[in-house]
Amino acid sequence: MSDEKICAFCEFACPIYDADAMLCKKRGVVSKAYTCKKFSFDPLKHKPPRINTAPKLEYVDIDTL
Length: 65
Description:
By secondary structure, this protein is mostly beta strands. The chain contains no helices and three strands.
């Protein structure tokens, strides 16, 4: 579960046209960083950081094949 209890991760809030605002079913229009007692974590709204791994390349001499 996320340590941040903000509206951006709450099941009662959904994003609206303004990039910094959410529409909360309990509180109305609020900031993404807003917090309240009704917070309920929605795991589908949390996007974990992507881990970039470089592929391991192997040298193959095609002349010896």
